[in-house]
Write a structure and sequence with these properties.
About 45% of the residues lie in helices and about 10% in strands. By secondary structure, it is α+β, with helices and mostly antiparallel strands. It folds into 3 domains: about 15-215, Lambda Exonuclease, Chain A, CATH 3.90.320; about 235-310, no CATH class; about 330-405, no CATH class. It starts with 12 loop residues before the first helix and ends with a helix. It binds iron/sulfur cluster. The site of iron/sulfur cluster (SF4) has 15 residues, from helix 2 and helix 8. Keywords: Hydrolase.
């Protein structure tokens, strides 16, 4: 989970497989860490302890409990981490029980996938092997974006590394590989993929040329959704070129239906030729798709420029100002003391509000919360939200929304 990263890390494989130039380009930008990353590392360490307590043998319980107590004093500790670690271990138990015979279970195994990716290595959170099957689990603490296991190159590289690692013991008895991503803060259902060892190895062979190009600095730039975590995303010229080309809307409107010369004509001339002046729904769909990356890129540019100006650099045409702020009391306790002294009652000064569902769940604990309150929990359908058609959620159903929560 923690530790140094390879030049072509498994966690960034989605990026370097799509943009083979990225690793060399990124190398010139310093590696940074964030509170989210530190929080994730801490949550991983707690998961590791919970998993050891469940599956370990001959454990020094005293030592393990002392380690846990130390983690609970860490800066980013949140009691929610104990719940997510419990969910992680519950998933591991469920997986272990799905094997016909008790599997061999091991935590935190450093694996080497350099047969496919130069100098590639990484750490598997948990590996289970038995009855011809190898299962690896990866815990993710993030709650922003759901990470899917299907087609996930990070998981496949870990699986290739795990196959190599345990090949000496299990030989070629392992025929299938399954991979599970447990991301309890975003979904109670882990995402999984299963494939044969032959399929996995064929995939590994297929990415070798890309890994080689990325490693040797012979890669090609290709921008897309994978730019999101690239350290050079704001200053990358290739990404800028791709996105600034999108600003020319004329290239994207009615390309299939109207000749470019007609598309460029003023509206009156188009109308005279019987070409509609309104965007069709097809055109709007096409513009929305092309514009999605443009919006993300623009926001990355803004973030970069803000940081650069705060560091004392000049970004022509821009400056940094203080944003809007709301009035606040400098000393809240003193304010209330003063108001009480002049005769205001607590009834006038205080609000007594029930906690939110999530707040109560935090106080009561997930299990007890479910046991006591499951009959009272409804899940109204969310507001209609426009997403890309590749999104895995079911399409919005207005009729079902009308009856959501009605029993
Ligand atoms: S920003 Fe995107 S296109 Fe540029 S190097 Fe990074 S991943 Fe490649």
């Amino acid at each position: 989970m923690a530790g140094t990263h390879a030049f072509l890390s498994a966690s960034s494989a989605h990026r370097w497989l799509n943009c083979t130039a990225a690793p060399s380009f990124e190398a010139q930008f310093p590696k940074t860490t964030s509170a989210y990353a530190d929080e994730g590392t801490l949550a991983h360490s707690i998961c590791e302890i919970y998993a050891k307590r469940k599956f370990g043998v001959n454990l020094d319980r005293k030592k393990i409990n002392a380690e846990l107590a130390k983690l609970k004093r860490a800066e980013y500790y949140d009691p929610e981490m104990l719940e997510t670690a419990t969910t992680y271990v519950e998933y591991l138990v469920e997986k272990a029980m799905s094997f016909p015979n008790s599997p061999y279970v091991v935590q935190e195994i450093k694996v080497d996938f350099s047969d496919y990716v130069p100098q590639g290595f990484g750490t598997c959170d948990c590996v289970m092997i038995g009855d011809g099957k190898l299962h690896i689990t990866d815990y993710k603490h993030g709650k922003g974006v759901k990470v899917e296991a299907v087609g996930n190159p990070q998981m496949r590289l870990y699986a290739l590394g795990a196959l190599k690692h345990f090949g000496a013991i299990f030989g070629d008895t392992i025929k299938t590989v399954s991979m599970g991503i447990c991301q309890p803060r975003i979904s109670e259902y882990p995402s999984e993929e299963e494939m044969t060892v032959d399929e996995l190895r064929a995939w590994g062979e297929s990415i070798k040329p890309l890994a080689d190009a990325a490693y040797n600095g012979r890669g090609e730039y290709h921008s897309g959704a994978w730019c999101k975590f690239c350290r050079g995303k704001a200053q990358c010229k290739a990404r800028a070129d791709a996105n600034s080309a999108l600003a020319d809307f004329k290239d994207f409107i009615t390309p299939d239906k109207v000749a470019p010369e007609i598309a460029k004509l003023p509206q009156e001339a188009r109308a005279a030729l019987g070409v509609p002046n309104m965007l069709t729904d097809e055109e709007i769909g096409s513009l929305l798709k092309q514009g999605a990356e443009l919006v993300k890129w623009y926001s990355d540019l803004q973030e970069y420029a803000l940081g650069a100006i705060l560091e004392g650099k000049t970004v022509p045409g821009f400056k940094v100002v203080a944003g809007k702020s709301a009035r606040a009391f400098s000393d809240e306790a003193k304010v209330f003391e003063l108001l009480r002294n002049v005769g205001y009652t607590d009834e006038q000064l205080m609000e007594h509000k029930p906690k939110t569902l999530a707040g109560l769940e935090k106080v009561i604990g997930k299990k007890q919360f479910g046991a006591l309150l499951s009959d009272y929990i409804i899940k109204p359908m969310g507001k209609p939200t426009l997403v890309d058609e590749s999104d895995k959620r079911e399409p919005y159903n207005a009729a079902a929304a009308d009856f959501a929560g009605v029993t």
